[in-house]
Amino acid sequence: MRVAIIGTGYVGLTTGVCLAFMGHTVSCLDSDEAKIKALREGKIPIYEPFLEEVFHEALPQLNFTSSYSEAIPEAEVVFIAVGTPPTPSGAPNLEYLSQAAKSIGQHITRDFVVVVNKSTVPIGSGNWVDSLLREAIAGRTDKSGTLGFAVASNPEFLREGSALHDSLYPDRIVIGADEPRALEVLYSLYRPIVDQTFTPPNYLPRPETVGAVPLLSTDLASAELIKYAANAFLALKISFINEIGLVAERVGANIGEVGRGIGLDSRIGPRFLSAGIGWGGSCFGKDTAALIATAGEYGLHLPIVEAAKKINSRQRDRVVEKLLNELKILKGRTVGLLGLAFKPNTDDLREAPAIEIAQKLIDRGVRVKAHDPIAMEKFEQSYGKMGVVLCQSAEQVVEDCDAVVLVTEWNDYRDLDWEALAKKMRSALILDGRHTLDKDKLMRAGMRYVSIS
Ligand code: UDX
Predict the structure, then answer these.
(1) Which residue segments constitute the domains of the chain, with CATH numbers given?
(2) Which residue owns the Cα nearest ligand 1 atom 28?
(3) How confident is the model over 382-392, as pLDDT tens digits?
């Protein structure tokens, strides 16, 4: 099928590359001409494992443009995958979505096109996009023949750092539409993924456990709410284990064991129960805020979702509290941060705990050093003025430090030579923000080990 994707960010580019890999003809559009030029030269603006490989394999089916008149007319399916960044109130900024919908309406030529909200959009946006499309079409003077469309919602569930895996082997595909024909078109688009009939890339083999992928067809509002409810629940699960971590610390329980113990209950499941500094990233914070804002429009409060956000924000403060507890005075101290990205295997710094922690420490007169295997270039571009000293290795970070904090659990930090590192530190204190280091091994290496809970 012929597909157009509006927006070449994490979601848009990954979706476009995967659909092209399935054999569809995909036109990726972005208003950022520099990004389009780079993509045409085969340069990918985001770090995502295997994206580059799949991109080059799918290249014959891909093209990149900034022109709606090039991307839209032939497309049978148009995905809107533009940013919906949070506004101060928490409600998402929909100007990019609005612009995309109007531009699509001005350029469709087929008698039936499925316009799909792939971006995470507020509940009710499907109807809003529908009205924007109608308005744009009504305003056209170049209409020849009948122009028809239907709007659908197809929320993405991909995790950064495993976007390709999650796109090729998803737990489920959710499609929301009030028009049956739209559901049929999207089912045939996704057929190779639903039936898992595509030949997997050799570097991303099909997991044994993956069979046919459930496809849930539902109405627009349900599909939009599924996205928000899923992210809110995942965020809630993490804040829950972090709240239990407060109790575990007081009673001397091991929060890692507690997480394993409850996760063995098949109704709870083992994942998203790792206690620590808490969640970052562009989704959980934004989506929980948007869900609360949408509920607020109906006069509803969501105390559970609000509590999950409060607990998560408090985890950053606990890093400072722990360091104060151990060092007594922070002013003039030097603290090293291992990891800047909001999680391993990505260079994404959006709502990364490291940024907030660094700022809190700098505000208390601490000299902050940091290292990250991938995200330092982006950190320099976006936060170069913070005054954080970026180091080329973990070894350089710990040198002369009064404490070092494991912020992001990159594999690079799991097997460091802590005996040698301890000798380079002014005081050999490690705060394990992700409960991933071996406490006994670090203590044998002469480190003082403190965990976040
Ligand atoms: C999330 C959702 O998982 C994905 O389905 C949705 O489409 C987008 O948002 P992402 O934000 O990329 O994906 O990363 P994820 O792997 O979910 O981790 C989110 C944050 O939670 C990270 O900061 C991670 O460090 C933290 N986390 C995750 C925990 O603190 N504990 C856990 O047990 C799991």
Answers:
(1) 2-218 (3.40.50.720), 227-307 (1.10.1040.10), 314-451 (3.40.50.720)
(2) 272
(3) 999 999 999 99
